[in-house]
Design brief:
With about 220 residues, this protein is an alpha/beta fold. The chain is built from 7 helices and 8 strands. An 8-stranded mixed beta sheet has the order 1-2-4-3-5-6-7-8, sandwiched between helices.
């Protein structure tokens, strides 16, 4: 499916985004949308399959890139990434064919933390975190606090978010152990938890089940 390439203008140069417009949406008939953020060692190019999956469900999708990744200028930091994704969100909800009350966040790995933090400033209709850590500190295996420059705290942000939450994780994840997802569920009992038999980056064993589960969550979140 085709997409439109967008560029954010930042103080360090242009940052790329890909917009996948859902079929049949227009200013007189706006539809739901998803803002997506990928993992640390990935690019927006790797997210096209998931974006297409959302398109098939009737969602417009905006994939945001990180500074210094792929074709985007600059260098990443928590502050810069936060600023850019706030701008991506503002761009998405400004589109006449997007219903601003029906924008969902879906972040994978680091992206789940990026978008959870964004929910403190821009409230989505729901949040999906996939293969995401509780916090950078919890992943750092006891490193001194002063070495942890970027303090992503997914759990704290999600606990402050009042809306629907879906946690997706692989039981064989050897990068972000499934214990992170289980702890999120323990600390946020109202969150929904889906566990699949996969690792950190290989995707669920059955994509049809994956999309059916996400579709069901979205219907509950947006009703």
């Amino acid at each position: 499916m085709e997409f439109e390439r967008l560029w954010l203008q930042t103080d360090q140069g242009d940052v790329e985004g890909w917009l996948f417009r859902a079929d049949g949406v227009e200013a007189t008939k706006p539809g739901p949308a998803v803002l997506m953020a990928h993992g640390n060692r990935e690019l927006i190019d790797f997210c096209r399959e998931r974006a297409n999956g959302y398109q098939r469900l009737g969602y417009t999708v905006l994939l945001g890139e990180y500074r210094g990744y792929g074709r985007s200028a600059g260098s990443p930091s928590q502050e810069r990434v936060a600023s850019d994704f706030q701008a991506f969100y503002d761009l998405l909800v400004s589109l006449p064919f997007v219903d601003p009350q029906k924008v969902v966040f879906h972040g994978r790995s680091l992206g789940g933390s990026v978008l959870s933090e964004l929910s403190r400033r821009r409230q989505p209709a729901g949040i999906i975190v996939e293969s995401t850590f509780i916090s950078i500190k919890a992943m750092a295996h006891g490193a001194p606090d002063l070495l942890l420059v970027d303090r992503y705290d997914t759990l704290s942000a999600l606990m402050d978010y009042p809306g629907p939450i879906l946690i997706i994780h692989g039981t064989r994840d050897d990068v972000v152990p499934v214990s992170h997802a289980l702890e999120m569920k323990k600390r946020i009992p109202r969150a929904e938890l889906l566990l699949y038999d996969f690792g950190h980056s290989d995707g669920p064993p059955d994509w049809d089940v994956y999309w059916n589960d996400i579709s069901a969550f979205l219907k509950r979140a947006l009703d």
